[in-house]
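Exercise: predict the fold of this chain.
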Amino acid sequence: MLSDKKQVCVAVVGSGVTGLSSAIRLQERGFDVTIFASDFPPNTTSDAAAAYWYPYNVGANRRVLDWALATFDEYVRLAEMPGSSVFLSPFYKLYAEESDDAWWVEGIKQCQRLEPGAFGCAYEVGYQMEVPLAETTTYMGYLMGRFVGGGGQFQRVVLQNLDEVPDAYSLIVNCAGVQARALLGDKAVYPIRGQVLRVVRPEGLERFIVSYDQGSTKTYIIQRSKDVILGGTAEVDDWNLEADPATAEAIRERCIALVPALKDATVLEHKVGLRPGRKEVRLDLEPLAGDRAVIHNYGHGGAGFTLSWGCAAEVADRAEAFCMESILG
């Protein structure tokens, strides 16, 4: 282990699912990790996420698919662990017309194509499969518990730039999400505003996920153990964190059209989050002054949960390589 060779203190910037997953993998490789963030669960963008496995609002390329499939496998393992709040759920992905959005299905085992009309709504293309679902109300707490149990520490701070991370940390892992735009001046990062409703789960409904794309309008229903998430929106360059009543009602009506049993479901809360959009996920190592370095891990769009463990493993690999180079150099 690296701790037998050299103790390296790592600062992870950001406490969403990307930051926590990266921090845990780094701990498992023997690093001393502290998370720096302005907010922690349950007050992160990840806590508002739908959090089912699906490469959404993220670049379609082999690297992304590899991260996604590695994460899929990890969630399958987590689903067998009590307390993880990860479950495998039937998933129906529907498109009103032929779409190139389904590039990711090639990697899914036992994915079946649905005949038009099989689900009861007008769609041209449909797929049925089983995918992982993380119930964020408890999954984020589970990740926090793993990190703390591994000796992890937190510092609540608003960073203006990475130079403000203390010199004691020779390696920084930047998981700042949409805030990377201000933190680094990376204008390639932009917000993708998502608004959802959380409603009471009607009696008798089995757990499942359905996502229906009608052009730019995306409707999804995620049935969890005690509630149902109704979504959603994907509003580019919108920084507004206030829930819009008209948008909420439109979401509700679209979801009821798909699942009429939701008509009388009581609304528990409205949630808004800003997905970190970017043409390509940034995951690379950048040298800094004073023999320090930063590993960037941001720009995951709407696929933070979907890519989290795959990206975390690559972060840990790059951290080990940086440490070995420091020792040998």
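Check your answer against the key: The radius of gyration is 20 Å.
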